[in-house]
Structure formats: C-alpha cells, structure tokens
From TrEMBL:
GO terms for molecular function: 7S RNA binding; GTP binding; GTPase activity. This is Signal recognition particle protein. It comes from the Bacteria. SMART domains: AAA, SRP54, SRP54_N. Part of the signal recognition particle protein translocation system, which is composed of SRP and FtsY. SRP is a ribonucleoprotein composed of Ffh and a 4.5S RNA molecule. Residues 269-282 form the SRP54-type proteins GTP-binding domain. Keywords: Cytoplasm, GTP-binding, Hydrolase, Nucleotide-binding, Ribonucleoprotein, RNA-binding, Signal recognition particle.
Length: 444
C-alpha cells in the first residue's frame, strides 16, 4: 500500500539530492511537488495545505547537518511531519472500564463493519483472552444479522440471539443486559449502515450511543473511498462523537491519502487497519511504519538522525576544547545543562554512569534534582550575551533583574554563579582526573 505516494515523494526529493544548500526557491519547488503528490494520493486539500506549510517552515533555513544532502534533510522533515500528522504510536482500543465494556461500530454499508466486528472479537478473544459478545443492531437487513451470527459460529464467539420487532436501541440495551448477566468483558455493537451519509443513520447512531453509553465509538471506513471517508468521519464525529477510526481495505489502497486526511481532519486516532477479508486480517496502526512506507526511505531517516547525533558530539568536543583553554563561560554551562537534561536529567545520568551512582546520596543531600536543571537554564536565559560571556560584570542590580526575569531570587542566581565558578575551576584542573563533571554541581 501507499506505493504511489512513496515513489512520488521519493522522486521529487531525489532531485534535491546533491545540491549545496537549501534555498527558499528550492524548498518552494519541492513543496509544489509534494503538494501535487499528496493531492494525487487523495489527501484532503486543507490537510495538504497545512502539511506543506509546516514542512516548508521547517525546511527553509534548517541547518543541514554534515554528511547528509539537503534533499535527505527534507525527506527527514517530511517524514517527521507525516508522523506528527498521522498521530502518535500505540493508540489501541481502550478496555479500561467496568465490564461489560460496550464498543459501538458505525459506518456506511459495505465499509467492512460486520467483518471488522468479527475481526475485533476474534483478536480480543484469542489474543487478549476476553469474553466477548457480539450483537447486530441492523434491523433493516436480516441478512446482516445472519452474517454476524455465521461469523460468530465460525469463530466460536457468541452473538446475541436475534429477536424480531425490536428497535436498534432496544437491542443495544438487551445486549448489555445479556453481557452483564453472562459475565462478558466486552459487548460489540454492530450498527446498521446506509449506502450514503444520511440523517436517519446519524440520529439512530446518536440514540444507540445515548442508550448504550459505549466506551469506544469506532468509525469503520473504507480507505478506498478517500475523500468521502474524510467527510463521513467529520460528520460522524460532529453528530455522534467518535473515539477512533478503523480503516479497512488498506490492502487494496495504493494511495494512502485517507489515513493522512482522516486523522488530520477529525483529530481522532486511527486505531486499527483492516488488511484483508479474513477475520485475522486486522492490524494495529503504526504511524511511523506508514510514514516510512510512504516515503520508502527509512534508511535516510536514520542516517540523518545519526548525523545529528554526531553534531552534538562535535559541539561537545568544541566545548571541551574551550574548557581546556579556561574559556568556560555561561553559554558553555548552559549547553552542558541542556545536554544533561537531554540525556534524561540527573537521574538518567546516574543510571548510565556507574561512577556517579556512588555519589547518589551526596547529590540528593545537596538538593539537586531535574527541576534545578531547568531553573538554572532559565536563569542563564535571562542574562544578556555580554553577561553570559563575562559573569564578572554581574553586580547586585543585574542579578536582581536576572532573578526577576527567570522568576527566581537573587540567592539562586548567586548559587548558579558559584556553581559556574566551581565548574570553570574544575575544567582548568581537568587532567588530574580526580573529579567527575558533576562535582561542581554537588558543591553549589
Ligand atoms: P458492512 O456492510 O459494513 O458490514 O461490510 P462487510 O463487513 O459486510 O464487508 C463488505 C465486504 O468487504 C466483504 O466482502 C468483506 O469481506 C470485505 N472487507 C471487509 N474488510 C476488508 C478489508 O480490510 N480488506 C478487504 N480486502 N476486504 C474487506
């Protein structure tokens, strides 16, 4: 799936590969092509607009790290933005409620609702070891009720006995009562769809929702219907309220626009994807995997990530050089504090370095914790450039201004300056190898 979009973006960005620097004109040209490719992939216009704008903003003037081409850099930015648009990983069905947990399936006729209900029941029964009851609320098509019953028999999963003459909301109520009496963990409600979006379907769904109070309302949408699926999702969400989306027929979707659009337009997570007709063809939705597939350039992404990591190493080496020369100013200290925060803060560092673990008690006694790192950075941030370069000019009035700017008191500014002096002294003495980098902090 998503082959076409992948090839197109790949082709466009390859043209950028090898250029010296990324000008605004380069980025604009690339974004025009990205925009065209996304539109051809059936991504909604409003989503295309905001997507390319976000990528553009990041691409123009982005520092192109050493050892990658500007084109590769753009691929990485597009990739990260695809993931951001598709949503975070691991949005699964939430069963965290008093059983029986009701899950309501909504969507158009033929979207794969009944099949997905059976797929979900199978997964929850076999993989998650839950006791599941399925109920069809489709009173308009007796064949639909029978279809679910057949699937249930095949999978050995119970379905609610069919009683004619009941309204959908009444059936939902009966299903939940049966769920309670039978000690079920989950009750899946397969509602009736229509061939098109209509008011009757919406009001019926809203009524069922009000009666059953489902923990999840999942829209089952056919990814092949692209733009229509997006409008459907928007309407259902506004009228009934959705908790998530299941995208079906992803196995036949070569364009992939629906996934991107639906998530962006509704803000609702795509929780599952259907990848075939059989009841085991249900998968978790992985934005990172799909973004990688859309671009088909996973290797480039990790290359850029590695290169960026090396840049940090270069920066660290430069700081070390300045330290040796006794030029360790407050800018350098800020850099060090941020690096510590990036590496998981003080507690993270202690976990990584066995030598430091021994100092744990000392550090705790000095009242050092991760919050202090942020506070210290805030203090340095409210200094002028001149002050950071030459802390000696910091007299009482400047300290007062800095403290106020950082929302701290002068005592804390003094502590930071003392810590900086300790660190600077320590840097000079480096080579004797007696003290670790945190020694200065512990004494502040
Ligand atoms: P409903 O009317 O929404 O309940 O739709 P059905 O569950 O009856 O599905 C309609 C058709 O789509 C059936 O032939 C299913 O086998 C097929 N179908 C459902 N989900 C998928 C899927 O993820 N991939 C493929 N290829 N076919 C699917």
């Amino acid at each position: 799936m998503f082959d076409n979009l992948s090839e197109k973006l790949g082709g466009i960005l390859d043209r950028l590969t090898g250029r010296g620097s990324l000008s605004e004109a380069d980025v604009d040209a690339a974004m025009r092509e990205v925009r065209r490719a996304l539109l051809e992939a059936d991504v909604a216009l409003e989503v295309v607009r905001s997507f390319t704008e976000r990528v553009r903003e990041q691409a123009v003037g982005a520092t192109v790290v050493k050892s990658v081409t500007p084109g590769q850099m753009v691929v990485k930015i597009v990739h990260d933005e695809l993931i951001a648009t598709l949503g975070a990983d691991g949005q699964t069905i939430d069963l965290n409620a008093v059983p029986p947990v009701a899950i309501m399936m909504v969507g158009l006729q033929g979207s794969g609702k009944t099949t997905t209900t059976a797929k979900l029941a199978r997964r929850m029964t076999q993989r998650d070891k839950r006791k599941v009851l399925m109920a069809s609320l489709d009173i308009y098509r007796p064949a639909a009720m029978e279809q679910l019953a057949v699937l249930g028999r095949d999978l050995d999963i119970p379905t609610l006995p069919i009683v004619t003459g009941q309204k959908p909301a009444q059936i939902a109520k009966r299903a939940l009562e049966a769920g309670k009496l039978g000690g079920y963990d989950v009750v899946l409600l397969d509602t009736a769809g229509r061939t098109t979006l209509d008011e009757e379907m919406m009001s019926e769904a809203a009524e069922i929702k009000a009666t059953a109070n489902p923990h999840e309302v999942l829209l089952v949408a056919d990814s092949l219907t692209g733009q229509d699926a997006v409008n459907l999702a928007r309407s259902f969400d506004q009228r009934v309220g959705l908790t998530g989306i299941v995208l079906t027929r992803v196995d036949g979707d070569g364009r992939g626009g629906a996934a991107l659009s639906m998530r962006a337009v509704t803000g609702k997570p795509i929780k599952l994807i259907g990848t075939g007709e059989k009841t085991d063809a249900l998968e978790d939705f992985h934005p990172s995997r799909i973004a990688g597939r859309i671009l088909g350039m996973g290797d480039v992404v990790s290359l850029v990530e590695r290169a960026a990591a090396n840049i940090d190493a270069e920066k660290a080496a430069r700081t070390a050089e300045r330290m040796r020369k006794g030029q360790f100013d407050l800018n350098d200290m800020r850099e060090q504090l941020l690096q510590m925060a990036n590496m998981g803060g003080i507690s993270g560092l202690m976990g990584m370095m066995p030598g430091i673990a021994k100092m744990k008690n000392q550090i705790a006694a000095a009242g050092i914790d991760d919050k202090i790192l942020k506070r210290q950075v805030a203090i340095i941030d409210s200094m002028t450039r001149a002050e950071r370069k030459n802390p000696d000019i910091l007299k009482a009035s400047r300290k007062k201004r800095i403290a106020a700017g950082a929302g701290q008191n002068v005592e804390q500014v003094n502590k930071l300056l003392k810590m900086h002096r300790n660190m600077a002294d320590m840097m000079k003495a480096m080579g004797s190898g007696k003290r670790g980098p945190l020694a200065g902090i512990a004494q502040a």
